[in-house]
Structure prediction request, 381 residues.
Amino acid sequence: MRRRIARKLVADRLAAGPAVVLVGPRQCGKTVLARSFSRACFDLEQPEDRARLDVEWPDLVRGRKLVVLDEAQSMPSVFPRIRGAIDADRRRCGRFLLLGSVSPALMREVSESLAGRLAVVELAPFAAGEVPGDSLRELWLCGGYPDGGILRRGAFPAWQRDYLSLLAERDLPAWGLPSRPQMTTRLMAMLAASHGHEWNASRIGQGLGLSYHTVNTYLDWLEGAFLVRRVPPWLPNLRKRLVRSPRVYWRDSGILHALLGVASRDELLTRPWVGASWEGFVLQQIAATLAALGRAPQIHWFRTSDGSSEIDFVFEHAGETWAVECKLTTAPSDEDLAKLDRAADLIRADRRVIVAPVERSAYRAGRGIVSVPELLRLLGA
Prediction:
């Protein structure tokens, strides 16, 4: 099993409390990681595992093994059982590890039955710190899903297309998304075309024949399934007028590229939206890595309404404000850094970083040009 940064966080949380819920998209490696802690695993989407859990429950509660419950939101009746077992012996730690692929359904059950009794850890597909350094180009092209190409050469992009088809036709409707599979597939394609742009639900709705309220509801579901990420604007107390709309990004670059019909790196580099793809890739590396370390910040973007000042990503981390700009060039200029400084001065950012596919980073005193691995190192990975 490849090393996952989140493993230490899961172990620490299990050592400190009775239960942990590990959330993340389907096929990102949750089950493999969970089995590294315990072989007492139950897939609650499978009727036979549900029956086995019912029969073995008394022994599992009395035993000392960590119990792993995969796709826990599929069996709501298990949550009161877990609560009863925890409350009967509040001092015992490391008893239950719950896995789930859809955040709204799972967290609703958690908040109703297990509030205050467990910790939440998010696992994303592989990030830059979890694959060899020379695999960064493949990670950007194929994305981080273990079976999507980064570990299985040749699987991209067919695996991603099959993955999205299964989600649209089976998983999302089963989880409660009130949309026909054909509509979901069209929405996914339109979201790919809007990747990295300001969110305009009315425009998307016009293309689909839906109201903007319905489009926003569907977007909530896709976000809850860990497929897309909304990045809200940074709104400091400035006199300047600021853009107030969020931006929407696909979390996994491989899924984005499959949706947009890209099958190779050479083809990717010719597309007019390649810069937005790189931007979303950097965003995912920051968010996934910090989440795995238990330090996930709220990431925003910033732009004045006249467009004179803009920063791709702004967030608070370790008591400092970070301003991160993404440039798809091996030689960012001094003017690029000066432009970032002018925008960062408006929000009084402590750190100013341009992230580019450079071989050598040049960073000093909180300011500079860095590669993705160097950025993650600076963030504490």
